[in-house]
Design goal:
By secondary structure, this protein is an alpha+beta fold. It has a single domain, classed as 2-Layer Sandwich (Zincin-like). The protein is 39% helix and 18% strand. Strands 1-2-4-3 form a four-stranded mixed beta sheet. The longest helix is centred in the N-terminal third of the chain and has 13 residues. It comes from Candidatus Iainarchaeum sp. This is Metallopeptidase. Pfam families: PhageMetallopep (PF18894).
Length: 123
């Protein structure tokens, strides 16, 4: 059975990474990180979720993005890989911050994540 819980530490770290990378299109108050346990997924370390346009309209609210970290895999990663995982998920958030996602092909790939990680660690 899947279990989920809010992780304030990783929420703050994700917000900090977004600021350091200059991802100014991300509304820091509308991103959150949750941990999960019990996934049957074999390779997934993290996922990003959002409220789609129809849900936003029905709920009369703005978009919101939640990064889900699969604790069984994420906790085994090095600190560097954890940061890269957060970067990867943040890069899926489009400039419009409207409830959609950026694709892997052009915007979220090994090169873009590595470039962002280098920027994150450059004084």
């Amino acid at each position: 059975m899947m279990r989920y819980w809010h992780d304030e530490t990783w929420t703050l770290k994700a917000r900090e990474i977004a600021v350091k990378l200059g991802l100014t299109h991300i509304d820091l108050d509308r991103i959150s990180v949750v941990m999960s346990n019990g996934s049957k997924s074999r390779r997934t370390i993290a996922r990003i979720h959002t409220l789609g346009k129809v849900m936003q309209l029905g709920m009369k609210c703005n978009s919101f993005y939640t990064i889900e970290l699969l604790s069984e895999r994420f906790s085994k990663e090095s600190e560097e890989e954890k940061a890269k995982t957060i970067i990867h998920e943040l890069l899926h958030i489009p400039r419009s911050f409207g409830g959609g996602f950026r694709s892997h092909r052009q915007y979220v790939n090994k090169r873009t994540v590595e470039d962002a990680f280098k920027r994150l660690n450059t004084p």
